Amino acid sequence: MNDIVVEIRNVTKKMGGKTIIDNLSFSVERGEIYGFLGPNGAGKTTTIRMMVGLMSMNAGEIIIEGHNVATDRAKAMMHVGAIVENPELYKFMTGRQNLIHFARMSGRTISEERIQEIVKLVDLDQALDKKVKNYSLGMRQRLGIAQALLHHPSILILDEPTNGLDPAGIRELRDYLRRLSREENISILVSSHLLSEIELMCDRVLIIQNGQYVGERLLDGSKEGSQAEELQSIQLQVETMEEIQQALQDSAWSITSAEGNRVTLSLPHHDIPQLIEHLVKQGVKLYEVRKVTPTLEDTFLQMTKGGRIQ
Q1: Could you tell me if 198 and 296 are in contact, meaning their C-beta atoms sit under 8 angstroms apart?
Q2: Which label site among 110, 197, 227, 244 has the fewest CB atoms less than 10 Å from its CB?
Q3: In the β-sheet with 67-68, what is the strand arrangement from edge to edge?
Q4: Which segments cross the bilayer (predicted)?
Q5: Of all residues in the chain, what percent carry a pLDDT higher than 90?
Q6: Judging by DSSP bridges, how do beta strands 33-37 and 204-209 pair with one another?
């Protein structure tokens, strides 16, 4: 089984003489939650609409499970579940009736067992026979996800899934998506303006600006390749500034910034144990040692030069 579920290859989209998406390429791996970020007008929704076959492209290819969306749309869409903007639900019907109706419209045989399996996965089994008009916004979002998952898709595409949800609803949705990626081995692409939520939810993020690829970042703390020679910032809390300055004299390390009794140093990852051992031998009282890792917000603002999220 291919580990790549979706490939976007050199995709370009022009509208009204303006380039909206400019030679964009990225891929989504099986079973990962992939964040899709960009400032206002970056082209995220346009990209998603092309991925689900709602909009054509001027150049490039979108391949889903080996099928080209432009030339083999039906087969490609068999592997896609999506909620673009808000889930389409019939509020006068029950949750069960909505799922049965969607199953019939899908053109595929979907068993009652599959419906019950998905309902349990999104924790709606106690509300399945209630009318959707009585559902909370979070419950409607989960029912929409259940609809999108009925036909066993390889990838679930969600455009701003947390819109309108309160903090409890956002946390619930995050937990359900994590369970889905683990239990169903499904890939999930999430476009959101909530950087803090993306950082908690996703394994990897893509950042685009003006329709162009800006960069990617892993969010699980791992790095591609060896960390041995990468510079790592660490912050130390000491008793006095004088003692650490004296301890670092004639050493290979130097302070990059200091505030109060906290100092920051930048050094190769494999030097950290040696630094700590050296400081202890020099009699420096260490109260705290922690790695300083840029937040997703820091990375986003740096990559986009302060661009605003839509």
Answers
A1: yes
A2: 227
A3: 18-29, 4-15, 59-64, 67-68
A4: none
A5: 43
A6: parallel
The residue type of 214 is V
Distances (CA, A) of 243 to 151, 238, 273, 280: 65, 8, 19, 11
Residue 104: burial class (beta carbons within 10 Å; 0-12, 13-18, 19+): exposed
* Residue bearing the bigger pLDDT, 300 or 223: 300
Distance CA 105, CA 108 (A): 8
Is the pLDDT assigned to residue 106 strictly greater than 80? no
User: If pLDDT is split at 50, 70 and 90, which confidence band does 220 have?
Assistant: low
- Identify the domain boundary among 171, 191, 218: 218
Q: Are strands 59-64 and 4-15 parallel, antiparallel or unpaired?
A: antiparallel
Contacts of 168-176 spanning 24+ positions with Cβ under 8 A = 168/138, 169/136, 169/137, 169/138, 169/141, 170/194, 170/197, 172/138, 172/142, 173/138, 173/141, 173/142, 174/200, 174/201, 176/121, 176/122, 176/123, 176/142, 176/145
- What is the Cα–Cα distance from 45 to 191, expressed in whole angstroms? 8
pTM more than 0.70: yes
DSSP state of 131: B
Whether the Cβ atoms of residue 288 and residue 237 lie closer than 8 Å to each other = yes
Question: What is the C-alpha separation between 118 and 106, in angstroms, rounded?
Answer: 16
CATH label of the domain that carries residue 273: 3.30.70.100
Q: Greater confidence, 87 or 116?
A: 116
106 and 251 co-located in one domain: no
Structural domains in the chain (count):
2
Of 227 and 77, the one with more pLDDT: 77
CATH number, position 10:
3.40.50.300
Question: Domain range for residue 213?
Answer: 4-218
Confidence of residue 11 (pLDDT cuts 50, 70, 90): very high
Look at residue 302 and tell me if it is in a domain. no
- For 84, the 3-state DSSP assignment is strand
More confident residue, 39 or 76: 76
